[in-house]
Amino acid sequence: MAYKRCRIMNLIIISILFVAFYSFYRIISDRVCYCPRAHDQLLSLPEETCRQIRNSIILTQLKKYNHTFLMEQIKELQRCWWSVNGNALEDIRSELRACCNAGSNLLVTQANTHIGDYITYGTNRDKRIEVTENIHEMLPKVSPFPDKPFRRCSVVGNGGILLNSGCGSDIDQADFVFRFNLPPMNYAGDIGTKTDLVTANPSILHTSYSKLDEERKPFIDDLKAYKSALIVMPAFSFTSNVDVSFKVFHTLQDFESQQKVAYFHPDYLKNLALYWINKGLTARRLSSGLIIVSTALELCDEVTLYGFWPFSRGATGKPISHRYYDNKVPKPGFHSMPDEFFFYTQMHSKGILRLKIGTCY
Hints:
Elements: H1 2-32, E1 33-34, H2 38-41, H3 47-59, H4 67-77, E2 82-83, H5 86-99, H6 102-105, E3 118-120, E4 128-130, H7 133-138, E5 150-156, H8 168-172, E6 176-179, H9 188-191, E7 197-199, H10 202-209, H11 216-223, E8 230-233, H12 242-254, E9 260-263, H13 266-278, H14 288-299, E10 300-306, H15 337-350, E11 354-356
Parallel strand pairs: 5-6, 5-10, 6-7, 7-8, 8-9, 10-11
Antiparallel strand pairs: 1-2, 3-4
Helix pairs in contact: 3-4, 3-15, 4-15, 5-14
């Protein structure tokens, strides 16, 4: 009898150890690396080749890189084992927190802005707006971001490279999903369905919703695709942005929407621009893509970019649309998407973030 009990206890202990070991393995493997899928492993490159490609990108200077060369290199890196470099990520995270601190300062809140304060506009530092009691009541009380980093984040650009990617499921597995400029959400297989934060450029409210003077209900109906996502707007970047940005707040309030709106802090955007200028970027303004990627690097332990591809041809050389839902090209001169993409490829090569190009199946 004692022998039987002992045998049962041994089996229980072995089972517990097996479950614990398997759970630990899944956590570690899920947390630190993205490996080629089974059918991709046949196409994976030797580690030495991958190391040479990474070093080539890391050592390339921004002013000397060639677009075609960069496209080819990052395409090859998709066939390489990728893992988070915790030290490299922590280095850039520390730099970003020291200069900008997205966790506290990305948004204008009641905690960092008080009644009677003045907010200086981002693009016209000679003009400012006083924070009245009414404006103060529109602001979130505190930053919506937790002190503890999100484990995994997806940053979903709108590039045509997402079409037929099959990346929707991968995107939705993240703990937090960032999107840009209220994109159409009817491509679930490629872009996913989850949204936690979405930016909104005031220009889309002018062109699609009559500045919210008349098209309030269609606006609210379209927002349902983002469920309870936080909407973030650059209300204080231009004086012309203020009115329509405030209308978004009142529209959401009037319709008792589940979404909330918040506003980028222009001081955060100014400090972040200086950070990237010191890294060599000379664009007139940072794109919302680079702003959110920088934010994600502060707020997330693992960052994967989808839909970031600034070229008119895909990784296979075939023409692709500018965005996954249309081919409208933005006005030139404001942003420098290829240069920003250069930094993404370097960060991918260093293990700071993962730049996903191509299919996810």
